[in-house]
Amino acid sequence: MSSTEQRVAIVTGAARGIGAATARRLAAEGHAVAVLDLDEAACAPTVERITVDGGKALAVGCDVSDSAQVEAAVARVAAELGAPVVLVNNAGVLRDNLLFKMSDDDWDTVMNVHLRGAFLMSRACQKYMVDAGFGRIVNLSSSSALGNRGQVNYSAAKAGMQGFTKTLAKELGKFGVTANAVAPGFIATDMTAATAQRVGMGFEDFKAAAATQIPVQRVGEPEDIANAVAFFADEKAGFVSGQVLYVAGGPLD
Ligand code: NAP
Description:
Blueprint: E1 8-12, H1 17-28, E2 32-37, H2 44-52, E3 56-61, H3 67-80, E4 84-89, H4 104-132, E5 135-140, H5 152-172, E6 177-184, H6 190-198, H7 203-211, H8 222-233, E7 244-247
Parallel strand pairs: 1-2, 1-4, 2-3, 4-5, 5-6, 6-7
This protein binds NADP nicotinamide-adenine-dinucleotide phosphate.
NADP nicotinamide-adenine-dinucleotide phosphate (NAP) binds near residues 12, 37, 38, 63 and 191.
């Protein structure tokens, strides 16, 4: 690839939250970005912000847990933007409950979006990366991978993302493709706002309480995670692969 050619990135779950911030950040660094989410119309604000800032973006509707939709979406990105060589597997959902109350559906939904979604997207994109002799895959794990009450499904999926990442790194390294994971702590997004609501707290009080437990004494913002993803996605990070970076305002126990 010549240095003047614009690299194409796909960010899943990019209609809002961490995905939207990451899409904007990768666009600001010169990537053409496919803003992929369940609902194509919901991607419009992210695409518009990128475009207003002078970047290039495409809204793509796709359920990452559906194999046929993933194949079609990645083929569409390749046709309309160019071969995707950066992939950020960010799409995610929560279905929290204690083990004894967790339904089969709560378990399957979380596994399907996080793990099956990352698998399907990575498999669909890797051929473009291998052909280009260059690729960057960044997977969103979580501090919950270390275990978190009420999240037996989510913690298992996010720990699984770490094993998945290390195996991608081992399989794809010889093709110039790196794979790394970013594991956020508490980040202020709709996801954590929904958790506040579920436990019956106002979001501001919930964030303030969380901040007291974080060494830097604040909760994270989506841009804090976008910064870490951008590091792994950078061409200069080519010797960094199979790593998990906790971005949580301090070390985790
Ligand atoms: P968010 O605000 O809830 O955004 C997640 C996005 O993913 C939504 O736009 C959602 O679409 C989309 N999505 C859900 N299922 C999908 C599917 N099957 N196919 C395509 N898109 C789908 O979440 P966030 O807080 O930004 O989190 C982003 C990632 O970081 C997730 O993987 C999450 O687990 C991880 N993370 C977050 C935190 C945190 O504190 N926020 C901490 C650790 C890790 P809809 O709106 O249509 O559902």
